[in-house]
Amino acid sequence: MSNMLGARRRLGLVHVVLVLFAAALLVADAGVTSSYRRKLEATVEMPLDADVFGVPLGYNAPQQVHITLGDIEGTSMIVSWVTANELGSSTVFYSEASPDPYMMELWAEGTHTRYNYFNYTSGFIHHCNLTNLKYGTKYYYAMGFGHTVRSFSFTTPPMPGPDVPFKFGLIGDLGQTFDSNTTLSHYEANGGGAVLYVGDLSYADNRPLHDNTRWDTWARFVERSAAHQPWVWTVGNHELDLAPELGEPVPFKPFAHRYPTPRRFAPAAAAPPFWYSVRIASAHVIVLASYSAYGKYTPQWKWLRGELARVDRAATPWLIVLVHSPWYSSNGYHYMEGETMRVQFERWLVAAKADLVVAGHVHAYERSHRVSNVAYDIVNGKCTPVRSRDAPVYVTVGDGGNIEGVADNFTQPQPGYSAFREASFGHATLEIMNRTHAYYAWHRNQDGAMVVADGVWFTNRYWMPTDDDDTS
């Protein structure tokens, strides 16, 4: 009898140990739902007379100035601006040597466009591509000659290479509220050489009759950053501006006229592609369009297949993909809206060993572990995301501060693929150090600009595919 009792006790002890071990594994795998609680305040749009919306002084002065890369290599820059009173000049003068507009020795001639949207007529929208620029060089540029001249400066990205350091800002769903202003101010304080913007810009379509004057105010608001460093644009759902009831059956009309990209420099082109890529320092950045067709054999599908084959990880080790609608999100808002694109393309990104996929759309912050969900074949039942060193980290930064407010509807319990999540506004940065290491950080608006609320060191999937997705 005593032997039987002893055996039972030992079995019971083994059972307890196994239960505790399993519990420890669950805890180790569990993500963090931040306990931080932001102040319960309404998200308020800035008034039209706010200084950030101010029209520059002078007759027909260029306004809404912004720049983006003009080619995949980073040796050209598209300069865009609006003149409100009359067409004026589409010429940009620029120089390495002199900030004086009348001493700039180089020049380029741009194009212009204009559009009507219901009861709105845009100003004259100018685009000018400055080509054959030197890498890592500061340029001064000016426009508005003949009326009111304004001048700015930018620094071109460094020459692509495997160990070239560079810092990106990651911003999405910005809008034009007081929270939006805090987000942009914090990013400016943190510094960066370019912004990877993951869609939903002005939220003009949230206004009655899709009030396109809010496209103008938004562009004047972001000019303080976007005129001095390239913003890499991703199209979101609020760029659709599809309103047949207003006699506006063409999608993306305002965005297409205002925001050129390397693949669609002709603003009036029919059916322009909103997917493209750029190479910046040691990163190859692929921009996908969540609201353009991406099914098998569509133009976007064929383009991405070819583009992934062109990625050279020896030259640009960091592979970053931008989308608008997240592929992995544990928030009830917009839940699984990116699922069809994930099913179509995730297998390719895992095979390519992509490092990071950045999305917006959901107005909260979330970072995933490196997970993959590509094993499922309908009959095998393997439909749960699993940890994979070949998979990217997925981050959602649709937390820029827009008028629709914070998405505070996270699912419970937190799924295993989610590493950190919080219903707050903010922005993220990705600082690439070399071919093996990059530091990723998310900054909530309620803290000082430099405070990191979620930070992790990433190791490169091609050069050093270690387990790297635990918060440091």
From TrEMBL:
Gene Ontology, cellular component aspect: plant-type cell wall
GO MF term list: acid phosphatase activity; metal ion binding
Pfam families associated with the record: Metallophos (PF00149), Metallophos_C (PF14008), Pur_ac_phosph_N (PF16656)
Domain of life: Eukaryota
Signal peptide limits: 1-30
Class of this enzyme: hydrolase
Catalyses which reaction(s): a phosphate monoester + H2O = an alcohol + phosphate
Domain called Purple acid phosphatase N-terminal: residue spans: 62-156
Keywords noted in UniProt: Glycoprotein, Hydrolase, Iron, Metal-binding, Signal, Zinc
Family the entry assigns: Belongs to the metallophosphoesterase superfamily. Purple acid phosphatase family.
Protein name per UniProt: Purple acid phosphatase
The species this protein was found in: Sorghum bicolor (Sorghum)
